[in-house]
Design goal:
elongated, 12 strands, 7-stranded mixed sheet, 7 helices, alpha/beta, 2 domains, single chain, Rossmann fold
Length: 264
């Protein structure tokens, strides 16, 4: 995709009974800590990327912070990242809990979109992207950014909405949304699906499997009614835990920043 990748590792100084051994570490000890963790990061890249990983578009960043979430945010702000990539689900219960919490915090607070990748995911060319929509104007801007990505892979975007019995104007809203999208987005490989169900999560989960989705995209809402806001947020979190395909989550306040020119 022609982007810069900043491989980031966040570490904290050793603690003893909940208290940092070095509240104000000596310069040499601090320097040694960074040197040690950078060496681990180099070893990690050599192990997973092979001997040719060193190039101008891939750089290493070691950050000291007691909070993984805050450390990642600080690196993203320093590099003015347009996308944060993070793995989800670890190899033990504690790691699952920590990484799950970090990912959820990033989805809610990060200054740029979050791409969450399941542990057992293997790289496949992106051919099918599913965008779950609520028929809101903010979705149009997010889909426009997704179209910029899809065009590079010649991928199909499936815009899907799941309508419940209470939402009796689903078909009318879909036609209105189509018209608004066509006015603002010229990408041709966009299709629309309107599904009817009272179980939004499971219906979406089954749909993703049926269409072999390579990427799921959702927008984290920041405004609207209380129930609607929290329902949608819960759905985003469920999809993050779904763990079958990567989830790209835009936050309503920062989706306009996504230009695919930098990746963390």
């Amino acid at each position: 995709m022609g982007t810069r990748l900043i491989v980031t590792h966040v570490f904290d100084y050793p603690t003893f009974l909940g208290t940092k051994i070095l509240s104000e570490p000596f310069p040499q000890l601090e320097k040694d800590a960074f040197k040690t963790h950078r060496a681990k990061l180099v070893q990690f890249c050599e192990e997973h990327l092979g001997g040719n990983w060193e190039n101008p578009n891939l750089q290493l960043e070691v950050v000291e912070n007691k909070s993984a979430f805050k450390g990642i945010i600080s690196a993203a702000e320093e590099w003015r990242a347009y996308l944060i990539v993070i793995g989800i689900k670890g190899d033990n219960a504690l790691r699952k809990m920590i990484m799950g919490s970090t990912t959820k915090h990033l989805i809610e607070k990060a200054p740029c979109p979050i791409l969450s990748i399941p542990l057992d995911a293997s790289y496949m060319p992106i051919k099918t992207i599913v965008y779950a929509t609520d028929f809101e104007e903010e979705d149009v801007y997010a889909i426009r950014k997704v179209a910029e990505m899809a065009e590079q892979f010649d991928a199909e975007i499936k815009v899907v909405h799941i309508s419940t019995k209470k939402e009796y104007k689903g078909k009318i809203q879909m036609e209105w949304f189509k018209g608004m999208l066509h006015k603002k987005i010229s990408y041709e490989k966009i299709n629309f699906e309107l599904l009817n169900s009272e179980d939004v999560f499971n219906t979406l989960r089954i749909y993703l499997g049926d269409c072999n989705a390579d990427l799921i995209v959702m927008l984290e809402r920041e405004k609207g009614g209380f129930l609607k806001k929290w329902f949608h947020r819960d759905l985003v979190k469920k999809m993050e835990s779904y763990g079958r395909a990567p989830l790209l989550s835009f936050r309503e306040g920062n989706h306009q920043l996504f230009y695919l020119s930098a990746v963390l």
